[in-house]
Known about the structure:
Chain A contains 8 helices and 17 strands. Chain A has helices at about 5-10, 15-25, 135-140, 170-180, 205-210, 255-270, 285-290, 315-335, and strands at about 35, 40-45, 55-60, 65-70, 75-80, 95, 100-105, 130, 150, 155-160, 160-165, 190-195, 215-225, 245, 275, 295-305, 310-315.
Amino acid sequence: MFLKELSEARGVSSREQEVRDLIREYVKPNVDEVFTDSLGNLYAVKGKDKQGPKVMLAAHMDEVGLMITNIEKNGLLRFAPVGGIDPRVLVSKPVAIGEDKVIGIIGAKAIHLQKPEERTQVLGFDDLYLDIGASDDEEAKRLVKIGDVATFTTQFQELGDLFLGKAFDDRAGCAALVELTKGEFDCPVYFVFTVQEEVGLRGAAPASYKVAPDVALVLEGTTASDVGETDEANYSTAVLGGPAVTVMDRSVISHPQVVARLFEIADKNAILLQVKRTITGSTDAGKIALSRGGVPTAVVAVPCRYIHSPVTVMSVKDWEQIVRLVELFVCDIAHKGVEF
Amino acid sequence: MDLAELLIALSESSGVSGYENMPADLIAKTWLGYADEVKKDALGNVIALKKGKGHGKLLLAAHMDEIGLMVKKIDDKGFIRFATVGGFDYRTLVAQEVTVHGKEKLRGVVGAKPPHLQAANEQKKAYLEEEFYIDVGFSSDKVREMVKIGDLITINRSVQKLNGQRYAGKSFDDRACVVMLTACLQRLTQLNHNLDVYLVATVQEEVGTRGAAVAAFGIDPDLAIAVDVCHGEFPGVRADRGFGLGKGVVISMGPDTHPKILTKLKEIADEAKISYQLEASTSAGGTDAWSIQVAREGIACSLLSLPLRYMHTSVETLDLQDIKEGGRLLSEFALKADRQFVEGLPCF
């Protein structure tokens, strides 16, 4: 399981190299062929010439982050989000900028200097700066440049019975896919690690065009809101509730027969499986399902609390179950086919 | 341990007001290497004496407590609700890693109401106090077994080394100034200084400058300098309230400051070519200076400040050069201020 390494690796959308290199190294011994395309998607293929339906399993390598957009005269940096980041999670966090991992922190005006009404306002991207300790723009320019991207610096750790780390969306999916490359399947399986999901599902469309699968599953890290005083009806998913199947989100309606097949397998094998209760968010499945003449596609995800923040939280139990579920699903497809 | 290492070790130790044992032990151990004697008083203040030529007793104070959180409730899902100890901007707590000091130390993260469950207009507002909780990743049974109401919670932040001599971290307010006192103490071992110097790492400053009052009574000094942080310059901070990082410590001018100490500090800084900044502070309440000033029958006092950006967040940012130069100024003061100066303090 390479979850720690994958979580700590840096790969903001369009700058996925570090993650791609790790995954390439991990999957190489397990598969027949590894290659990339012109967008940077990474493909690992197993049993290409086998009979049976062609299965595509996808997880995205990129994570949300920040991009430096200006270096101010006073040495502070302006930045913009890459992907969806709620600015409320940024205040008082360190980030690592550019290839040299220059450390910067996002500060806020001291509470002592605020009027009471200021404290109820969101500090938005227009109010925040990155501070790298440069005393002016010249000093700053020696360390960073406009266009550099920044990631959270969170170390992977245990949190009680759970795991804490950054970018479980979707390194949890990537780690599951890497694990699945060890499996033996009686059909061709394409493990696809996509790029630029967080900025508009960009890698998945060309990837599914290239693979032209008969059926596809997208492995994700998705929102868990089983927290605080939320009532159960508002849980998107719950940590320790098993993998979550998306029935519908903003980008896709998972193929009902694929969903049914997943539940059938889960029932038969005593795997906990939950349905994601909210219909927000979009995934690579939206692109894959509409690729070429259409592909039966579903999303299964590891529930993650505090998604898109520096501290995402997930359970290894849910992760193990998703690996098992998907492995059984592929075996099932190999034997029963895709006549939905 | 050099000054940077001490700064890091002190910043990363945990000691919320009233529970300063961890930084206190580290400070006592460090000061024992340079001072003639080191002791703790009844409230937990760490006091070191570095004897000089006996021209008078100088008290130097910096506080070692930090702001923190306290367990208020454990809910049925195992999430912890909390109160604050000291002044927090809740907006800086979202997605913050913390340590819950229960039966054992538990790692936690601060969560808030998930954005997709908030109405669009709620998302435009900062989270409310009651929307926060701490997630320790255990079931409620397990949490209740390990944690009780009233247990303390501290912020986790390893010190971040920034460009040059700048560092970011938690509780630099005011342990960075304890480091400044240490820099002074180290230098005093090389000097034949006039004043006997009492260095105090005070407790409970953040909840009302309480330790300093007791320490000042106990030591009964002739004069005192409290050392605390002031705000660093930053966009949106008025020029008269924010001071440059790396441009020297800030000498406060105002009710806290005895006029003769102010003049002397400036004179000594000029002589020793130590850069400093001046703050016109009409009522610098909220530091140990005030408590010391009114102890016993009154003590001639002054306030020296270290510029610090983002005060009371986990990424307080400073320049180590200011700490070193501030230490030099304090030691020069102990070297040069003499009996005549001390005896002249009550004469207006």
